[in-house]
Amino acid sequence: MGTYLNPGRTMFRGSLRSQIYVDKSGLIEKTNAVINTEQKYMCVSRPRRFGKSMAVNMLASYYGKDENTEALFQHLKVSRYQSYREHINQYDVIRVNMQDFLSVTNYIDEMLSILQTRIIGELKRKYPEYTEES
């Protein structure tokens, strides 16, 4: 598992083990409903401290195809929906926390260059047959 490409279940598993976890897996069903439609681009916005990172970790864990994560979701609300099995672990997921990049750079071009280098590096490692030397 990569840092950005299919980051796996570790972060979401930590949320599930928390004593204050609230099941928000219904978001997965909403996301499944728009896959391969004109509405496929979504923005999940919430106020500060309202679970954006947890939601992203949940989505990355559910959709990422490098690891079987059914055990994490089998007791959550999403497992009751028809589309649950159709989409679990079926996609490559790129998870980026922009704050990680903004905090180590002073300029947007510098941030984008670092982001591009890291993500392309992971894609080249996973799919060497589709990349060129440069």
Describe what you observe in this structure.
- The chain has 134 residues and is mostly helical.
- The protein is 45% helix and 0% strand.
- It has seven helices and no strands.
- The model has no long low-confidence stretch (mean pLDDT 91).
How would you describe the oligomerization state of the chains in this entry?
single chain
Q: How much of the polypeptide forms β-strand, as a percent range? A: under 5%
SSE order, as H and E? Answer: HHHHHHH
- The proportion of residues forming helix, as a percent range, comes to 40-55%
Low confidence ranges: none
Biggest sheet overview: none
List descriptors.
globular; 134 residues; mainly alpha
How are the secondary structure elements laid out?
Layout lengths: L9 H7 L9 H9 L17 H12 L6 H4 L10 H4 L10 H5 L5 H19 L8
Brief summary:
This protein is 45% helix and 0% strand. It has seven helices and no strands.
